[in-house]
Write a structure and sequence with these properties.
Blueprint: E1 4-7, E2 11-14, E3 19-22, H1 28-38, H2 49-59, H3 62-70, E4 74-81, E5 87-97, H4 102-108, E6 113-121, H5 130-145, E7 151-156, H6 160-168, E8 171-181, E9 184-193
Parallel strand pairs: 6-7
Antiparallel strand pairs: 1-2, 3-4, 4-5, 5-6, 7-9, 8-9
Helix pairs in contact: 1-3
The structure holds coenzyme A.
Length: 195
């Protein structure tokens, strides 16, 4: 990353120093905070605030991030502006396994695959290239986590920005699934990386 971009009107983000690294348990609190801020941005307009809050509390807690950082079946990456203090700008989570959702299995197969389970970037850093750097590192991490395996993701059908981002980086639409947020059912598209 070698560009300096102005964003959010007042803040400067130096992309030449922004870096992606594996997250550790020490990042758990900060990443849970970033997740609470960014998860609502991925939800469709009809999602209720209570359902989103329940999802954040149960699925995106610091303990969850600590477990992912320590898991051999996951890769948790953070992109940050180095400090001090370092500022986390985004994170990505990969998980390897056999699909446990029938619709996903229909779309991506029943063998072991890698899911890009999460990729979230702070609103201040969206549109700056930070997400592309994070995704590039996630693609590399996927080849280490499970060499040769299909990489797939699900994202809300109304999340046009994320889908455009994924298409731009080589993902193609292969199916649909239902994703439950705080007890509410949402329609996701399923995409696979086709590079
Ligand atoms: C998804 C995300 C990581 C992508 O990062 P980003 O920095 O926004 O991505 P980029 O700006 O590089 O790419 C987004 C593309 O969508 C386009 N776009 C923006 N708004 C759009 C919209 N409403 N409809 C369609 N395309 C849109 C942009 O123009 C850009 O394409 P371009 O580079 O060809 O111009 C980031 O937006 C994010 O964290 N969003 C909130 C959380 C989320 O939805 N995460 C994904 C969950 S599956």
């Amino acid at each position: 990353m070698a560009r300096r971009r102005r964003f959010a009107g007042v803040t400067h983000l130096d992309l030449s120093t922004t870096r992606v690294r594996a997250a550790t348990s020490d990042d758990a609190e900060a990443l849970a905070g970033l997740a609470a801020l960014t998860f609502p941005l991925a939800c469709p307009p009809g999602a209720s605030a209570d359902a989103i809050a329940a999802h954040v509390a149960t699925q995106l807690s610091p303990d969850r991030f600590r477990a992912w950082a320590a898991s051999a079946a996951h890769a948790l990456l953070v992109v940050e502006e180095p400090g001090p203090p370092a500022r986390p700008l985004g994170y990505a989570l990969l998980v390897v396994g056999v699909p446990d959702d029938a619709d996903v299995a229909d779309a991506v197969g029943r063998d072991e695959v890698v899911e890009l389970s999460k990729i979230y970037v702070h609103p201040d850093a969206q549109g700056t290239g930070v997400a592309g750097a994070l995704l590039g590192a996630a693609l590399d991490a996927a080849t280490v986590l499970a060499p040769g395996r299909t990489l797939w993701l699900g994202t809300n059908g109304l999340n046009a920005r994320a889908q455009a981002f994924y298409r731009k980086h080589g993902f193609v639409l292969v199916g649909e699934r239902t994703y439950v947020v705080g007890g509410e059912r949402h329609s996701d598209v399923v995409m696979v990386h086709s590079a």
